[in-house]
User: Fold this.
Amino acid sequence: MNYPGAEPRSILKVSFCGCAQVGSNKTDSTMEFKKLTPAEERVIKYKGTEAPFTGKFNDFYEKGTYVCKRCGASLYRSSDKFDAHCGWPSFDDEIKGAVKRTSDPDGRRTEITCEKCGAHLGHVFIGEGFTPKDTRHCVNSISLEFIPDTTAGKN
Assistant:
C-alpha cells in the first residue's frame, strides 16, 4: 500500500514454488493454470513421483511435443525421447529455455521444473551414457500433456 509521502518499495512476493520474486508486480493469480487432480497436484505442486512403469508416456513414441500439464508451455520434442528402461519417460534434451535445473537440498540429484510455472517434472542425470548427448531427463508422465505433430504423415 502506498501512503502520501512514502517512498516506493520493491515488492517481495513468495510464489507457489517458494521462490522469492523481488520487484515483480505479477501475482500467481494472473497466471492461468489447468485444474489438477489430487494425484497431479501431489507430483506437480508437492514434488512427488509417480510409480515407475505406470505413466501413460513411458511406452509412448508418437511424433509431437510434450507440454507442461499445469501451464501448457512446450518442454520436450518427441525426437529427443528415448527408452532408458527406467519406468519414466526419458529425454536427452529439452526445448531451449523451457526447463529449469535446481540441485536438490541434499545435492545428490538435480530437479527439473517448468521454467514458466515451476511445475515439478522430475530429475535430470548426466553421464549415464544412454545417448550421445549423455543426458537423461527422467520425467513424470503425470506432469506432461502431449500435442501430436499435425504434419506427420502429410505430403
Notes: The radius of gyration is 18 Å. The first strand starts at residue 12 and ends at 14.
